[in-house]
Each structure stands twice: as C-alpha cells, then as structure tokens.
Amino acid sequence: MATYYRWRKSTIGVQYDEETRGPDTRPVQFVLEKDVGSVYYQAKGSGYTYNGDGTVTLPSASRSSLSGGWSTGYTMYTAESNPASELFFALAPYDIYWKKTGFGETLIYGFRGSDSTIVNCTRRYNFRNGPGTSQGYVYSTSSSAYPNGGASGDYWYDQRTTVTSPTAPSGLTYPNPITTPTVTVSWNAAGSNTNYPVNLYEVSYSTNNGSSWTVAGTTASTSMSVSIPAGATSIQFRVRARDSNNQWGSYVTGTASTVILAPTLTVPQMVMQGQQASISWTEVEGADNYTVQRKSSADADWTQVYSGSATTFSETVGTWTSLQYRVQAVFGETSGGWATSASIPVVSASALVISGSDGDLGTLTADVVYSISTDTGNPITATITVNGAVIFSGSVGNSASDVIPVLDLASGTGTIVIEASVQAASGSVSAARTWTYTKAPITFPNAGGVAQLTQEGANIWPKTLAECVRLPGGRTLDVGMLRVEIGWYQGTNTYGASNPTSISFSGKPYLVFITGGAFNSLINPLVRRSNSNATSAATFATSSSNIQSISATWGDNSVSWYSTSSAQGQLNGNGAYHYLALLLGGDE
Amino acid sequence: MWYMSQNTNTSGAYCAPRSNPFPNAIPLTDDQVNFLVARNGFINVANTPDPDIEGSTVTLTENTTAWEAWKSEEAAKAAEPPAPTQLDRVEAQAAYTAMMTNTMMPEV
Q1: Which of A228, A380, A401, A405 has a CA that sits 20 to 30 A from residue A243's CA?
Q2: Do B17 and A489 touch (CB under 8 A)?
Q3: What is the ipTM metric for this complex?
C-alpha cells in the first residue's frame, strides 16, 4: 500500500502584524521591495477609524498631489520634514513613512500592490502570507512536493500529514473446486484515500500455495476470466488495485481451490447415419473414470453412453440429424467439469455410399467389384489406393461402378483403400472403404512347357507373349526381333573333334563373338553362313600371326566348334571365356 | 550357378560349363565347376545332391579311366611332329614359287 503525504491547500490570504508603540514622533519607515506603481494600505489604531481594506491609490508619478486625498483622516505628506504628518510618502519612490503621535496605540499595517501581490518591506513587521480560503487537500508520495506552511505558486500549503492509498479490494471470489479450463475471478472495488482514483486491478495466481505468483492480467473492471494453467492441481488468486497515480495498493489473497479440469474432447466434424461416430478425449491426471453423455436430435436430454477408464468411445450413428457429446472426469466421488462438443451434423446414409464393408476379402479369385454413389447429385471425388500406391484419383460423377482387376494386384497379402468425398448440403461428406486381400501367386508346373491353344485344329491363342506382338509388315515379335545374349563358360583345356566346345542359347544364334582365356585381348567371331543348321568353317586368332582353323556346327539354339591344334586355339584352355551372341527368335 | 550339358563329347568328357541355363542343363556349383575343369571334363555325374556341397543337385566323381586315356592320347600327340598348318603350307608354296622364279628376297 502506497504512503501519501497530504497538505491542506488554501488561497494565499493576508495576515496582519500588530505592533503596540509608545508615543513617538518619529515615523516608521517601510521600504518597499519594489515600485508597484500603486499601493493599498490598511491601518488601524486607537483614535483612528479602521477603514477595513480602505485604500488609497498612490501613483508614483503624482504622489505629492495625493496628499489629503483619502477619507480616514490621515494626512499625507511628501516629506518627513512635516512632523505633524501621520502618514506620508517620502523621498525615495518606494518609501512610505508612518508617524504615530499617540500612545499605546496599536497599529495594524500592511501594503499590497494594485495587482494584489504582497509588497514586502524591509521592516520586520511586513505582511506575511498565510492560509486563505481552503481549497481542499493535495497529495503526493514525495514529502517535498509542497511546502508545509508556505506558498507554492498561487496557493498556501500546510497541515502536512500521511495517508495510505489505494485500499485493498475486498470480497475476492472464485470457484472451489475449479472444473473448467477458465474461471472467473471477481472482487469488490478498492477505494482511494487520495484524489487519485483507482483505475486498474492486477490479478495473479499461484499453483504452489503462494510460493510463487504469476500475473494473469490486469483489468479496469472488478472481474477477470483466467485460464487455468496446464497441470495445475490447485490454484489461488490475489488481486491488488492501482490508482491513477500508478500507485499499487495491498493484495487481497484468496484461498487455494482444487482444480478438476474437464478433458479435452475431440469429435468428428461430421458423421453419417449407420456409420461409427468415434470420439476421444485427453487423459486427466488422477481421474478414476470418465463419463460420456450424448444428446442427439432424438434425445430430449443428455444420455449417458459410457462410463469407464478408456479415453475413446464409438457408437453407431442412428437416424439422427445432429449429435453432441460431452465428457467429464470422475475422481472418486467428485466429478469434474464437462467438456462439451459442438453440435455434429449427421448426414443421411445415402449421402455417400461405398459398396461393401471394411474387412478381409479373403483369397481373391476374381476382380474386386466396387461402387460409389451419392444422392446429393454432386460429383464424387474418389481416390483408390492399392498397397499404398494410388491407382486412381479424380471425379467419378455421382455414381460409379467398376472393378479392380485381380491381375493388377500383387501376389501375397495387400490392402485396397477407396476414399470418396462429395459436397452435401451440410458440408463436405467423406467415406472410406478398406479391404485386405490375399492373392495366391501364379505357379507353373516344373514339367511341361508352353503349348499352343487350338480349337478345331486352328490356333486361337498365341503360344508366347512375343507371338502376340505384331511388328510393321505383319511379323511377330518372336520372329522379327533381334536379340543379344551374353554369357561365359569355363574352359576345360581339351580340344579336337572328340572334344568340341558348345554353347546353348535361348534363340537361334547367327553371330557369336568370343574372347578370353590366354588371348582375352582378341575377339573371335563365329558366323552362321546359312539359315539352316550346318557346319561352317571359321578361324580364331590367338595372336597376330597364329590363325587357327575352326570347324563350327550350328544348331537351332546352339553352336559347337573345335580346333585340331590346341585347347587354346579352340578357345577352351584354362580360364573363363566370354561370349556375345546375336539371336533371332524364329526362322527368317 | 553354372550349367552343363547332360551329354558328353565323344571323348567322354563333358563340355565347358556355362553361365546361362538352357534346356535339360545340369546346374553346378562353383566348387563342382572347379572339380570338372581340373579333370578336363572327365567326370561321372550322379543325380543325387553332393552331401559335401551345399546347394548341389548332382554328385560329381572323377572318370579316371577316360581321363587317363585322354591324357595318354594327348601325350602321344605331343611326341609326333605337328602337322603342317595351312599357313605353313602357304608359306612353303610362296618360298617354292620365289625360288623357281628367281625372285627370292636376299637375307638381310
């Protein structure tokens, strides 16, 4: 609480000095501190008529001509040389002489200028300033802000004392226990003992029984809404007032309130009839249970739908048009505040429908059929995701029916997700369908091979995929496509007609390049000379001067050759040999 | 993995093992290829996995008889003078022609 100094404030009045003098023929001299142009004069003495504030105007320029110009009976002279004078204005322009001839007379005297300012004199018995008409009190926190028994400016100040202000507010009120995230703290207005009114309040809170305080805010009113800090289990408030001189008063401090907050409730923005409405709420420390209540468009009042320790709840949405939930934490016998959701719009079941229901489709034996429809008349936006990869995304109109080919699905287990949304009158409606599936991998028998599918003696289906591809000119890919095949073999260090080297290919070889062994810087070709299988001659160079004659035999998918000179000349010595072959898929 | 033909050459040796599979090929491990090459292809093949070689599908054993016969034959070949090659014959023909036409180049 601030300490103020208080002074009585008054106008500056006139006090009179009194002096009792014996008979004296000598005048009393008053030396004015300045020439004020005109002088007001008051005097009272026995045998004289007190004239109140009777005045005589004495312009300095015509002082001498004013003698006798006043009604009190005084006679004024302009010089001391006239001893009979009782009052005269004398030599110097600022001097006034007063001469009393009586005995035991009391003089009351003073001078002031025509502008009402006091005109001091060098004589001891000057007019003095003092309190005049009271102007009330002034206040300051500084003891030297005003004189104590003196003038400052146009006023007289005295009777300095101390007061305390502003006072502490009273009637501090807030709930106990606190069950809502925000609480209203209110109090009675504080008072001021000065002329500085209270214009602000500061609210603080403590969550540790007053060990430390946090300012919640300030307000000019006598209440404030304060958010309960997270994690607080108890809280107390205090308030203090401030006056317009920015001086704070003392605090009024309340007792600690137990905090039992409501959970934070999360609900869907929209639900659909027949679908699950799932809500969740945050855990409240120390809560034993939670109570969930629902109020649908079909409920007259709140209906309890759950009580337990879980923090989630789901139920099937009925044929309602709106839905609302609220949840509270329960601490033993005490219940916390309600966390209440906004009203959740419920869209009709046909607003957006994806066929089927979530679940496992089992082992697929056919394409996956689905449909999406809406009765809103608006276009549906759909996204289809298979095993995390989006296979379709776009508008499907207001109705769509299609299949996901089983051939497009990977073998093993997988997931198909269909998500759709449409703009309904109540807002955007979304739906999703999630299926899992199992697709058996396609297995081929170990024995057997590709066979031609015929009907009544006619080919009705190509035997290989390459036969399906048609090239310009009508040829098929299996016939017309030139292919390259590479590989290597490990020489056995034998040669001769009884030990030919042979390579098999996946097509009909026409040109084979071989390198490796001890002559891996040389590339030796084998060339099929005719389209039919036959033996052809060739030469292998094992050096620039060593040319080996080779006899090569071509098969449908192979070539073999031998040299009669050496294993290295046959390119079958120790080491690895690499080859590159140009193949054709069929007869040309 | 390597691949070898099921059929032997007329010498009784298997042909060089290859990197690419082909119809009716016998798959071999790296160790089995080394075994085969070290014996010039003269091996026997049993259609049971070799218990000492992981991943094998056949068991190889040395065809000692055929291998020794082949080696003896090769040794006999080495003792004989090599038959003239085509190039030898071309060079001899060129020398004979030069001498007959007195166009032999002088030695330097």
Answers
A1: A228
A2: yes
A3: 0.72
